[in-house]
Design a protein that fits this description.
The complex is a heterodimer of chains A (265) and B (292). Chain A is built from 10 helices and 10 strands. With 265 residues, chain A is of the alpha/beta class. Helix content of chain B is 78%, strand content 0%. Chain B contains 12 helices and no strands. In chain B, α11 runs antiparallel to α12. Chain B starts with 11 loop residues before the first helix and ends in a 15-residue tail after the last helix. Classes of the chains: A alpha/beta (265), B mainly alpha (292). Chains A and B meet through α4, α6 and α7 of A and α1, α9 and α10 of B.
């Protein structure tokens, strides 16, 4: 691979932030993902769609550096970060806010863990509360917030992990339909505003088409088996983020959904 | 038990402190209004009063001969007459109980932390910890006295031995109660074991720790008394043996009363500590200040 030799500047021409090449993953003896390659460009939101059991979360863990893959590499801005945690930001369906800490303490946690002095960490975190629509919740405990607010707080915490690439594993799936819709729209606006690159894992085709710039479909090439999976197709969603609300109701969106569903098999 | 606190602005700790007084007032106001809180206090008070009256009646009307069972009034007068003596013995026992409890908590804490940090320690020591609890206190107390003499040391050690088990078990299960996804999340923040412990595990274990500490607090006083029984010069256990030998059952009951009171006092102290250490427990749940 040429990227691994070129270091920081190697991918900048194409503005590739995250490049996953020929990743091989398994659970013990069973192969889960085989030859998975994809990339996430700067400012791009890539959705990874797959059936349950297709290894989405396993792949997600590998990209987050929580597991070491059997083969392949993960490059972040040209640097090899395979099997290294702490290089990309990470957010799950569960907000994972610690119930014993206030929202401010929860949100500032990545800074506190990075040994930023308490006062400074809190000041930095506090400065972003308004942007994330969380003003007034600093001193509250997670149990006092609604699900949507908790997810926003979790997103702010993810943001303060201060990595260019954000990984999200079904971050909206635990919310009710209306809250989810609002939060998806808000999240897109935030991505644009904060200039983040993101990879979102979901099993919800509607969500993928509504949010992604590109949809990657994780599926199996063996008929009748969910694993081992690989990227079986890619669908571009060429619609500016500001027009998404109308777009999802259009026939183009419907056609894209059909395409994704066909790829899912 | 839960003080409801009105939501305010500002950092949690400061706010919790500042409004503690206001919350207390609000709770007091509500107490009078709510019939269930009235029931909470009157029902047990009436039960205790009834038992005392029945006991006094049984003694007054000689249902039970007075040399076998002293009346509550006899016990009360024994309590008053021997107050200075009882107080000095109680202080000794309380000192032993507290010192032993402190050692037990410290040992339990270190052990539970080591068991959480190193799986080997967990596997190697958990059967031993459990077995240690099956050894009867009364069997080991004379041995401790034999080995360590009649001073304070064997008492403190016995209390520590009886109290460390509930602490270790409750802490170990509290540490384990943290969602593994939280651990994964913190790993992606490059958190060290200590940071995970400090931010996630320790607070998560607070609940079960205090449940264990409440149990240990009651064991502590009883443990100290049992140890004193078997050899010593001062303390409630020593005093108890003396009055039993002289068949002064009114004084005996007075000691029992003091022992119960000490245990209750310790449990109350644990409750106070629990509420100070867990400010997140005092907030109103599921209040949704913003809808989104």
């Amino acid at each position: 691979m040429t990227e691994s030799h070129t270091h920081k500047n190697g991918d900048q021409a194409s503005q590739v932030r995250l490049r996953v090449s020929r990743l091989e993953l398994s659970w013990g003896e069973e192969a889960v993902c085989r030859d998975v390659s994809f990339s996430v460009n700067a400012g791009e939101l890539v959705c990874l769609v797959g059936r349950s059991g297709s290894g989405k979360t396993t792949l997600f863990h590998a990209v987050a550096g929580l597991t070491v893959p059997d083969g392949g590499s993960i490059l972040l801005d040209g640097r090899d970060v395979t099997g290294r945690a702490g290089e990309v930001s990470y957010m799950l369906q569960k907000d994972l806010l610690l119930p014993q800490h206030t929202i401010l303490e929860n949100v500032a946690m990545p800074l506190l863990i990075a040994k930023v002095p308490r006062k400074q960490a809190f000041a930095t975190a506090r400065a972003s509360f308004a942007t994330f629509g969380l003003e007034g919740t600093e001193g509250l405990y997670p149990s006092q917030l609604s699900g949507g607010m908790r997810q926003r707080a979790a997103l702010l915490r993810t943001y303060l992990m201060d990595n260019n690439v954000v990984l999200l594993d079904e971050p909206f799936s635990a919310l009710d339909a209306l809250t989810r819709k609002d939060l998806q729209a808000w999240f897109l606006a935030m991505l644009t505003e904060l200039d983040l690159s993101a990879m979102l894992v979901t099993h919800d085709v509607d969500e993928a088409v509504a949010m992604a710039d590109r949809v990657l479909v994780l599926g199996s090439q063996t008929p009748g088996a969910a694993r081992p999976s690989t990227i079986v197709g890619e669908v571009e969603v060429a619609c500016p983020r500001s027009d998404r609300a109308d777009f999802v109701l259009s026939s183009e969106a419907l056609a894209l959904k059909k395409q994704v569903i066909a790829l899912l098999g | 038990m839960v003080d409801r606190e009105k939501r305010g602005e500002g950092p949690g700790r400061l706010r919790a402190k500042a409004s503690a007084g206001a919350a207390g007032l609000a709770a007091a106001r509500r107490k009078g209004a709510r019939p269930d809180s009235l029931l909470r206090w009157t029902a047990p008070t009436l039960t205790v009063l009834f038992v005392l009256v029945a006991w006094q009646a049984a003694c007054t009307f000689e249902v039970v001969p007075s040399f076998l069972l002293p009346s509550p009034l006899d016990v009360a007068s024994a309590l008053v007459d021997d107050a200075p003596l009882l107080a000095s013995h109680a202080l000794v026992t309380l000192g032993e109980a507290l010192a032993g409890l402190a050692c037990g908590v410290a040992a339990g804490f270190l052990l539970a932390m080591a068991m959480d940090r190193f799986t080997v320690v967990d596997k190697a020591l958990s059967p031993l910890v459990t077995i240690s609890q099956t050894i009867p206190t009364v069997a080991i107390a004379p041995l401790l006295v034999l080995w360590l003499g009649y001073g304070m040391l064997p008492k403190v050690l016995l209390v520590a031995l009886t109290t460390f088990f509930p602490i270790t078990v409750s802490l170990a299960s509290g540490f384990r109660s943290v969602d593994p996804d939280v651990i994964d999340l913190m790993r992606t923040m490059n958190a060290s074991w200590w940071q995970m412990f400090r931010f996630a595990k320790l607070p998560a274990a607070a609940d079960s720790f205090f449940a264990g500490l409440r149990i240990s607090a009651t064991y502590a006083v009883v443990g100290a008394v049992v140890a004193e029984w078997l050899g010593g010069f001062e303390g409630l256990g020593v005093y108890m043996t003396r009055v039993r030998k002289s068949y002064s059952y009114d004084q005996m009951f007075a000691v029992i009363f003091i022992i119960s009171a000490l245990s209750l006092l310790l449990m109350g102290a644990v409750r106070v500590l629990e509420r100070t250490c867990m400010p997140w427990k005092r907030v109103e749940k599921h209040e949704k200040p913003h809808s989104f």
